[in-house]
Amino acid sequence: MKVLVAVKRVIDYNVKVRVKPDNSGVDLANVKMAMNPFCEIAVEEAVRLKEKGVATEIVVVSIGPKACQEQIRTALALGADRGIHIETDAEVQSLEAAKLLKAVVDKEEPKLVILGKQSIDTDNNQTGQMLAALAGMGQGTFASEVVVDGDKVNVTREVDGGLMTVALNLPAVVTTDLRLNEPRYASLPNIMKAKKKPLDTTTPADLGVDVAVRLTTLKVEAPATRQAGIKVADVAELVDKLKNEAKVI
Amino acid sequence: MAPEQIIATLKTLVDDGKVLTDPSDLDTYGKDWTKIYPPKPIAIVFPKTTEQVQALVRFANEQHIGLVPSGGRTGLSAGAVATNGEIVVAFDYMNQVLDFSASDRTVVCQAGVITEQLQNFAEEQGLYYPVDFASAGSSQLGGNLSTNAGGIKVIRYGMSRDWVLGLKVVTGKGDILELNKGLEKNNTGYDLRHLFIGAEGTLGFITEATMKLCRKPDNLTVLVLGLADLTNTMDVLQAFQKKLDLTAYEFFSHQAMGHVLAHGHVQAPFETETPFYALLEFEAVSDQVMDDAMALFEQCVENGWVLDGVISQSETQAHNLWQLRERISESIAPRTPYKNDISVVVSKVPDFLREIDAVVNQHYPDFEIIWFGHIGDGNLHLNILKPEDMPKEEFFGQCEQVNKWVFEIVQRHQGSVSAEHGVGLVKKDYLQYTRSPAEIAYLRAIKAAFDPNNIMNPGKVIDPA
User: So where are chain A's domains?
Assistant: First the structure.
């Protein structure tokens, strides 16, 4: 069974994000970039499926500038077999990403597509769902467990109030939630082996997809800074403030 | 003066509410992380200014009462422990950053500024304060300087001492001295600043410090390598240092990692089990540096020194790999470890390690030994864990017997019995393994010059003549 995994290059989770002075966006100059954490979980799940003998080939795809190849190489070091880089310097939004991935799905015909549920930069949580719709596949989103059973995949989803398990006919789209697995580190011997794994480059034009932007960002602002707290002398003052100033009781 | 009168006077010397005498406060503020010596202070005072500290010192001189300084209380040598009716001077409320100069790249801090607060302040200014260790979230600058704290970046950035450009101190005689005044160059005779750094509060109390900041390192990347043998730590270090400027080089044993993993929330770096691990950190500023690191790794594997390894692919992973090293102390704390903090010059490390290993195996066959440390600085943290069914007193008694063997090896290699934890009460009886009798006599003379009445942290480091 062939598995396709999509990974996105985003600002490192640990970096303190700064807004550009002109409020046009987030400052990316000299900022550490890394694989989106939910995509790391997607890669790990695919590798585990391969280790169980369920998956036979893992293809990893990423959309973005040339530097995205770093994240593809990381996925190859973690256990993916080959990479596809859709190179573009344009800002790619969810629907365009889904269309590009649909084009790759048509070409590669994977049985299972695994994506992160969202990327930590734009937090849209759309691409997986849009891809499922465009490709006419079933979708299991927010997965906390993925079990392939013959022609079906059972996906346990984290939903409000508990867990829901859906059975999907293959091929299907799965998006990962935080508790699906704990991704491993890329070992140095595997990083060196990954340098020799195939990585094909293509472009949105080659895939026949127009990536023109449909949404315009008007303004990006940092969250308001938190006001300093105060100390109250006694319970009576606390109750008074909660009642009359905060108006919460 | 009766205890009630002392407490009443203390209340006139500091702000309202800044004297505590409740038994639970006396217990909390009367000790550090050692927890061996039962605390018994008379009161805890919280000065807010240098002048209040001076008033406390003058009062202590009049009454011949000892003063014990207290910061983040993360010390491991009982340097900040009050066992004998002393007044504890806690710096928690002297926690202001007073001044910053972008062109000098210096920051003036009160002694109670927490290490992490200083690190964060530097970062907000686009700069970096490089002294870092596991307890940076609690330890205070005054304590760091009084113990000349080292930590995990010494191999590149040196000890706390190297970042001090000025100090304001209150001496044991009650004088306020401003030492070196932030100058980078100042060759005007004896540099008293350096006497107060590492003095553990025995000469006077540091109340303010002018600290130097530097450029923030770029793209810090972490390697964790599985080593075939203890002495391979030095082979790997030398191989990497030929090509790269390391910002950290740490090692730990498989047992040490076992405790961290059992403690939870941390993931093993790889499946291969190796007896020892090395953690390296460097600035991956270009593809060339990364290629060099990869080539060095291959070379170490070919030589049989390294069996497996991982490299951080993100800051998150770098942070998580550091947890393997930083959480060791915390994870073994429930086992009441006996801590040794010994060092030699780097070239002597392999022989030193072999001899210590032999002695420890001979004398502690039933004890669990945890090895880790800043091995790139020649600094080894040798921790001996208490068997669960053995009483604390018996355990420490046995450890002290074996200390003699360990410290004789340290002495033979001209090493230190306390590399970065200080002397306090714990290592006081072993000072002669590192310091000569003539040297100790000079230390006593210096103590007498600054603190003739022996009121400043009495009983720590050395006893007066």
Answer: 2-222
Which residues of chain B are at the A interface, by a Cβ-Cβ cutoff of 8 Å?
218-219, 223-224, 267, 269-270, 294, 297-298, 301, 308-319, 321
What are B270-279's pLDDT values in tens digits?
A: 999 999 999 9
Peptide bond into A171 cis (omega under 30): yes
The verdict on A231 touching B (C-beta cutoff 8 Å) is no
pLDDT given for residue A231 in this prediction: 87
Tell me the pairing of strands A199-202 and A162-169: unpaired
A98 contacts A134 by C-beta, under 8 angstroms: yes
This prediction's pTM: 0.86
Nearest to B315 among A15, A74, A192 (CB): A15
pLDDT tops 90 at residue B23: yes
Residue of chain B whose alpha carbon sits nearest to that of A186: B310
Give the 3-state DSSP-derived string for B369-409, with helices as H, strands as E and coil as C.
EEEEECHHHCEEEEEEECCCCCCHHHHHHHHHHHHHHHHHH
Structural domains for chain B: 3-90 (3.30.43.10), 97-215 (3.30.465.10), 220-329 (3.30.70.2190), 336-422 (3.30.70.2740)
Give the integer Cα–Cα distance in Å for B90 and B332: 28
**Under an 8 A CB cutoff, do A34 and B310 touch?**
no
Residue pair A92/A55 in contact (Cβ under 8 Å)? The answer is no
| Mean pLDDT, range B191-202, rounded to an integer | 97
- State the pLDDT at residue B39: 95
Q: Which residue of A35, A184, A187 is in closest CB contact with B314? A: A35
Compute the nearest-CA separation of A225 from chain B (Å).
15
Tell whether A186 lies on the interface with B, counting CB pairs under 8 A: yes
Q: Which of B313, B316, B319 would you mutate first to test chain A, the one with the most A CBs within 10 A?
A: B313
The top-level CATH class assigned to A2-222 is alpha beta
Tell me which of A71-80, A87-96, A138-147, B353-362 is least confident: B353-362
